[in-house]
Amino acid sequence: MVQRASTEDSLSQAVIAGLITTMVGFVASFAVVLAGLFQVGASPSQAASGLLALSVFVGVCTITLSWRHRIPISIAWSTPGAAMLASLAPGAFTFSEAVGAFIISGVLIVLTGLVPGLHKLLTRIPVPIAQGMLAGVLLPLCIKPFTSLGAITLPALGILLVFLIGLRILPRFAVALSMLAAVAFGLWHIGQNQAWSQLQIVPQLEFVMPEFSLQAIASISVPLFIVTMASQNIPGVAVLNSFGYELPWRPSMVSTGIGSGVGALFGGHAINLAAITAALAAGEQAGADPKLRWRAGISSGAFYLIFGAFSALIVSVANASPEGLFQAAAGLALLATLGSSLTGAITDPAWRLSALVTLLVAAGNLTLFGIGGAFWALVAGLLTHFIAERAARR
Fold first, then answer.
1. Closest CA to 330 of 22, 86, 75
2. Is 122 helix (H, G, I), strand (E, B) or coil?
3. Dist CA 344 CA 360 (whole Å)
4. In the beta sheet, which residues pair with residue 271?
5. CA angle 234, 74, 87 (to 5 degrees)
């Protein structure tokens, strides 16, 4: 009886840990995904389809990998990748071109799992440059919570206060609470305008015919691939290692790459190994026995499938809310990531100037020859290092 009770307690811990993992991952960042998809031309129905596709493939990959390898492998959508999309100039590409670029990014992720040389090449990208690019694409969105105070004062101030109070009382859930506050303000706005008829309940996948262009591949595929690998997949491996788990690299990259590519056909941008939320399913809160914590991964994947069922409702609330409200919430969700990327960019004095140049070019969203700022940020940062910093050390 004692053993059975202990087993049941362990299972309940795994289920609860999976729920918390999904809540933190989904609720804390769905606004970032919507901001990115809308910025590259998605309609509300296409954005809802994209959010649903991401949820489905995140759930399926999490369940499959955790079950197959018996370790708590957490999959998530690429939040930094969505932020990168949100930094692009509006109207620069059609959504079909963006979808084509998403597919190419997924192919690159698959190749990273299949071709050892590509993985090694990726790890040779200087950390300060990669972090500088990430900080640059995050910066414009992270400013939104404060610039929106002038246009939508009450709701913007409300979600900011919820965020700050949450940091004081429940720091792990501060971002999720601010997202829920944004949803509450959105519903209040809809009620004030008697716009309940605008809400959509039933989610639907909407196929998007991809188009391929060199400009979109350079502006979207390459930066999306790099920020997804550098800020999600590689740290995700490190998080699992810290809990004593050895990640199956090839199956994980092939699964998430295929999931990204197929999901792109329905509007999703990219999925990857979870980094921050991975610790929630792999730590002691998921059960005392590390060999059984894979059940938290199964639980998390199942809850992603459930949460995905609300994608149409979430998008319709966001679409009917005051303009800028969910962008402000997305900016709050990315503040911690911005802080860590800034630290990673400027810590090494030998790369500090080039990292700052990378950051500024990415933040300024320089567009040349139809190619967006994230790509040119990498080019500018590397050139600055080899022309100025590397020469100065000789």
1. 86
2. helix
3. 15
4. 77
5. 60
On the CB side of 3, CA atoms within 13 Å amount to 0
pLDDT tens-digit profile of 20-74? 888 878 877 888 899 999 999 999 999 999 999 999 999 999 999 999 999 999 9
Q: What residue type is assigned to position 201 of the chain?
A: I
- For residue 381 the two structure tokens come to 């940062």
Q: What is the 3-state secondary structure (H, E, C) of 196-221?
A: HHHCCCCCCCCCCCCCCCHHHHHHHH
Give the whole-angstrom CA distance, residue 156 versus residue 332.
Answer: 11
* Burial of 170 from C-beta contacts in 10 A (0-12 / 13-18 / 19+): exposed
Token pair 């129905």: residue: 45
For residue 115, give both structure tokens.
Answer: 């071709």
**Model pLDDT for residues 123-181, shown as the tens digit of each residue:** 677 888 888 888 888 888 889 889 988 888 888 999 999 999 999 998 878 888 888 89
Q: What is the dihedral of CA 103, 38, 53, 336, to 10 degrees?
A: 90
The total of other beta-carbon atoms located within 10 Å of residue 343's CB is: 11
Amino acid letter at 96? S
Q: Are 348 and 111 in contact (CB under 8 A)?
A: no
Residue 41 backbone zone (phi > 0: left; psi -120 to 50: alpha; other: beta): left
Specify the 3-state DSSP secondary structure of 128: helix
Q: Which residue, among 369, 383, 103, has the nearest Cα to 219 in the 3D structure?
A: 369
Quick check: helix, strand or coil at residue 351? Answer: helix
Q: Which amino acid is at 237?
A: V
Q: What does R_g of the chain's alpha carbons equal in angstroms? A: 20
- CA 226 to CA 133: how far, in whole Å? 10
